Amino acid sequence: MKLAKTKADIAFDVCNYTLISILLLMVIYPLYFVIMASVTDPDLIYSGKLFFFPDQLTFDGYQRLLSEASIWVGFRNSVVYTVLGTAINVVLTVSAGYALSRTDLVGRNVFMFIIVFTMFFGGGLIPTYLLVKDLGLLNTVWAMVIPNAVSVFNVIITRTFFQSNIPGEVLESALLDGCTNMKFFFKIAIPLALPIVAVMVLFYAVGHWNSYFQALIYLKNNSMQPLQVILRNILIMNEGSDLQDMIDGSQEQQKRMELMKYSIIIVSSLPVLVLYPFLQRYFVKGALVGSLKG
Asked: Which of 143, 30, 24, 168 is nearest to 85 (CA)?
């Protein structure tokens, strides 16, 4: 039986929906504005005439950006670094999280102390660079994926997920039926941990896709630079030419620069925006439950 809502309930619902709608608009409108600004004449943006939909569409910013051959090279490199790096990250994180969740692991507390210790104390940039150099990883793909192969925070979240969602009784029953530890990990633990695996894929993939600082330090070959560095270089070069053109009295270059700024934001963000909806249901189930319990 459905109870009738009182006036207080109705007022409460109205306030909730109003507040949620305002917050939703605050989150969505900036992204929508950037999308519209990337296909709008900059004069309309400067004059404040762009609110919801532009009167004059132009794709000059995208045409100039995508006509750069280096963009496609950077895109390919970013895809390679993201896929390879995410695969290594997820394998190591899930394996470490599962092992540390097992109460029968000898020296588990010692291992956990050493791992957590690295969250608070590190060698710093220069020792890390020297280590990567001595290992012969400079100017290689491995320099982008090996130094940050494991995130301690993600290992803790994964360990907590295994502890909270896979009872010890399940392991005991499997062992009594003749199941080995490796078979239990691959046949039972991993299928039950798909939500946290998807969350780790999202976390690591976004981190690799947006990464540029490592490339600036470890990669000297321009043909190996990821997309983010390529876009940064294009932006810097256009700013330099924009300054010279402004001195010469030209405004067209400034308009193209504004279009390219917004186009760069969309091009660099689009892959992550496309990936997120496919992992959203796992994100809610895995990340929120695992991290809150942790």
From this structure: 143
What residues does 57 pair with on adjacent strands?
A: 40
End-to-end CA distance of the chain: 39
Find where tokens 């909270």 sit: 164
How many other C-beta atoms lie within 10 A of the C-beta of residue 196?
29
Q: How would you class 147 by CB atoms within 10 Å of its CB: exposed for 0-12, middle for 13-18, buried for 19 or more?
A: middle
Which tens digit of pLDDT belongs to each residue from 221-231?
888 889 888 88
- Distances from the Cα of 278 to the Cαs of 43, 282, 291, in angstroms? 38, 9, 20
* pTM (predicted TM-score): 0.77
Residues 6+ apart with CB under 8 A from 24: none
Distance CA 265, CA 235 (A): 11
**Which parts of the chain register pLDDT below 70?**
1-3, 43-51, 54-55, 237-256, 279-294
In contact, 264 and 253? CB cutoff 8 Å:
no
Helix segments in the chain, DSSP class H: 7-37, 42-46, 60-66, 69-101, 108-120, 125-134, 142-145, 152-165, 168-176, 181-184, 190-192, 194-210, 213-218, 227-248, 252-282, 289-293
Distance CA 43, CA 261 (A): 15
Which residues have C-beta within 8 Å of that of residue 214, sequence separation ≥ 6? 143, 144, 147, 148
275, burial (CB in 10 Å: exposed 0-12, middle 13-18, buried 19+): middle
